[in-house]
Amino acid sequence: MTPTRETFGNISPTSQAIFYLAAAASMGVFAYGIWRRARLWRRGQSIELRQLVTGTLRQIASKLAPGLRRLLVDGLGQRRVMGRGLASRAHGLMFAGFMMLFLGTVLLEIDHLAAMISRHLSFHHGTYYVIYEFTLDLFGIAFLVGTVLFAFRRLRKPPSVGHRPSDWVVLGLFLAIGVTGYFVEALRIAWQHPVGIGARCSPVGYWLSSAFAGWSEEQSRGAHRAVWWLHALLVFGFIAAIPYIRLLHMITGPLNLFVAKGVLGVMKPVTLEEAERDGRIGVSDIRHFTTQQLLSLDACMECGRCEEVCPAFATGKPLSPKKVVQDLKGVMERLDVADAETPLDPHEVVLPETLWSCTACSACVFICPVRIDQLTLILDLRRHLTGEGGLSGTAATALRRMQSSANPWGLPANERANWVPDRISE
Predict the structure, then answer these.
(1) What DSSP designation does 267 have?
(2) How far does Cα 100 stand from its chain's mean position?
(3) DSSP single-letter state for residue 269
(4) In a 10 Å sphere around its CB, with 0-12 CB exposed, 13-18 middle and 19+ buried, how is residue 41 labelled?
(5) What are the C-alpha distances in Å from 34 to residues 105, 239, 248, 250, 258?
(6) For the residues of 129-150, what is the DSSP string, one character each?
(7) Is it the case that residue 312 has pLDDT exceeding 90?
(8) Taking residues 230-248, what's their average pLDDT?
(9) How many CB atoms lie within 10 A of CB 318?
(10) Closest CA to 364 of 380, 353, 377
(11) 3-state percent breakdown (helix, strand, coil) of the chain, nearest 5
């Protein structure tokens, strides 16, 4: 007998219709949440994304290639995530498991739709089916192991990582989705009684099915339907919740990888014409950041890596790159209720002493898994302070001397090189 199974085995046509309605509802809630966030990002300065898809095919390909490369290497390849101990291993396992389970779900739906057109178009059987079931069983374990490792890390409460009660809800949801998925498989095997490789290609489900060996077919079918619905509702809840909790980075992270600048930590020059036209230098309103910069605020998942490598934070200065991003995100979220004429000044939450604590070393930029450019955010805010005369102390003195004497020490032209040791000048 050819190994296979029905996509909606034991599920009535009415239940299938309700299933698709529930799926559409969860996708609607998901889409609405993403639309609300995108509306905030678009309040920033335009980055002209349309330019990416204008020109000849060769020109379009060359413009899209860097972003696609970052998606492949830093997104799918998780290059920037790896190398950080337990957190990297947990994220790698969870990410690999999630992506494979997602791909498996998509393939199963494609097969189901193809079979509705013609049973000859169905491909979910035979060798493909065996490989499919075995692969998903293994990656399901990876997903659960990654979830457990993250839970263990949460229990340790590393100070650099953001902690919210909703994080435990998410981890519990992931565990419930993974476990119920295996029990759906086990109960299907219990009432379907596949033989040979058709049963053993799902090792976890086959092992769990032994717990229901004494059940009647009616009992197994009833339990299967109940657990199948529980699993489906958990998945729909997960999909609907993504834009409203920390999981938003699943969408905004890849988006930021794609649209972020190729070289981070480099400020855009400001011309006198631009300063006269805009009436400002730097950022005095959250809307003065670009759309990409506002998107990057939503890409932050509060992993704390930027904080761990920041020399200013390590020496007790009032600067945490993570907190700067989160504070700016809080200001951005006020755009939802603010009218277009009401300025939203980020300097109200990011104080001057925080901004001037930054040494511009770019450590935070290089370590961020999703290429958030914390340095440019800080420097854009510092530009405004400088333009408004908000400097004091040695920084202000150095700028005045640069203006009058073309060097920060205020030395006359014939003495500018006196600070160089004789052995170097010789």
Answers:
(1) P
(2) 18
(3) P
(4) buried
(5) 22, 12, 9, 11, 17
(6) HHHHHHHHHHHHHHHHHHHHHH
(7) yes
(8) 95
(9) 14
(10) 377
(11) 70, 0, 30
**Neighbouring residues of 162: CB distance < 8 A, sequence distance ≥ 6:** 246, 301, 302, 304, 322, 326
Question: Which residues are 45's β-sheet partners?
Answer: 290
Terminus-to-terminus CA distance in the chain, angstroms?
89
Tokens of 138: 């293994």
- Residue 325 predicted with pLDDT over 60: yes
Over pLDDT 70: what percentage of the chain?
Answer: 98
CB atoms within 10 A of CB 147: 24
- Rounded to whole angstroms, how far apart are CA atoms 297 and 372? 8
pLDDT digits (tens, 9 = 90+) for 15-56: 999 999 999 999 999 999 999 999 999 999 988 777 777 888
The residue ranges of every structural domain in the chain are 13-258, 262-411
Does CATH number 1.10.1060 belong to domain 262-411? yes
The pLDDT assigned to 30 comes to 97
DSSP one-letter string for 174-212: HHHHHHHHHHHHHHHHHHH---THHHHTSHHHHHHHGGG
Collect contacts of 59-67 with beta carbons under 8 A, ≥24 apart. 66/262, 67/257, 67/258, 67/259
Query: Residues in the chain, how many?
Result: 426
Distance, CA of 118 to chain centre: 39
Distance (Å, whole) CA 110 – CA 122: 9
Element counts in the chain: helices (H) and strands (E): 19, 0
Out of 1.10.3720.10, 3.40.50.1220, 1.20.950.20, 3.30.420.40, select the CATH number for domain 13-258: 1.20.950.20
CA atoms within 13 A on the CB side of 331: 25
Q: Is the alpha carbon torsion for 359, 360, 364, 367 positive or negative?
A: negative
Cβ proximity of 2 and 201 under 8 Å? no
114 vs 4 pLDDT, higher one: 114
How far is Cα 112 from Cα 133, in angstroms, rounded to an integer? 16
